């Protein structure tokens, strides 16, 4: 899940802040310029020290820092951040308290472009999107036309592709959003 917010903090000023729980990092402004954003590992959220220019890492309206992640055996959320009662892990850790080293294989995008990747302890799994069939590494859909929005370009380009062309370009379109129409 990615949360992007422009919370009003302080005297009506706004700060760019985004949070990627799946990949275990957040990013924000480090000064009053919106041109320079810095990425931080998740455990820098809620650590009591202000990393973002206006403190969005410590003071958010959504997914608030809480201290109720402690388990019955007394173990605490570590290598991550406790948000709304759930412990979320830094990249490289997993388990209920983020206490187990675990690689997030999903960041290498191992699944088909039409599949969702789920990181698990010691492994990962791929599941085809609704409307698609396959083992998650190769998914086939019934839709004939797709809109493709290229994510990494400054001005996203929307292209329309037929199925054959899309399959030919499968390798080169891993960083795009796909919409079936
Ligand atoms: Ca912090
Ligand atoms: Ca894993």
TrEMBL record:
KW S-adenosyl-L-methionine (keyword) present: no
Gene3D superfamilies per the UniProt record, alphabetical: Laminin
SMART domains to which the protein is assigned, alphabetical: EGF, EGF_CA
Domain EGF-like: 102-140
Protein name: EGF-like domain-containing protein
Recorded GO MF terms: calcium ion binding
Lineage: Eukaryota, Metazoa, Ecdysozoa, Arthropoda, Hexapoda
Cited CDD domains: EGF_CA
């Amino acid at each position: 899940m990615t949360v992007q917010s422009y919370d009003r903090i302080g005297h009506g000023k706004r700060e760019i802040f985004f949070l990627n729980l799946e990949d275990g990092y957040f990013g924000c402004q480090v000064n009053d310029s919106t041109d320079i954003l810095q990425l931080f590992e998740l455990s820098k959220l809620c650590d009591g020290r202000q990393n973002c220019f206006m403190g969005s890492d410590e003071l958010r309206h959504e997914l608030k820092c809480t201290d109720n992640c402690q388990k019955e055996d007394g173990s605490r959320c570590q290598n991550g951040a406790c948000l709304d009662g759930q412990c979320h892990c830094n990249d490289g850790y997993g388990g209920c308290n983020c206490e187990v080293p675990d690689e997030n294989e999903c960041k290498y995008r191992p699944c088909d472009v039409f599949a969702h990747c789920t990181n698990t302890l010691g492994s990962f799994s791929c599941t085809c999107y609704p409307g698609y069939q396959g083992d998650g590494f190769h998914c086939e859909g019934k839709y004939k036309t797709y809109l493709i929005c290229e994510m990494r370009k400054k001005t996203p380009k929307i292209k329309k592709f037929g199925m054959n062309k899309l399959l030919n370009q499968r390798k080169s379109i891993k960083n795009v959003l796909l919409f079936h129409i």
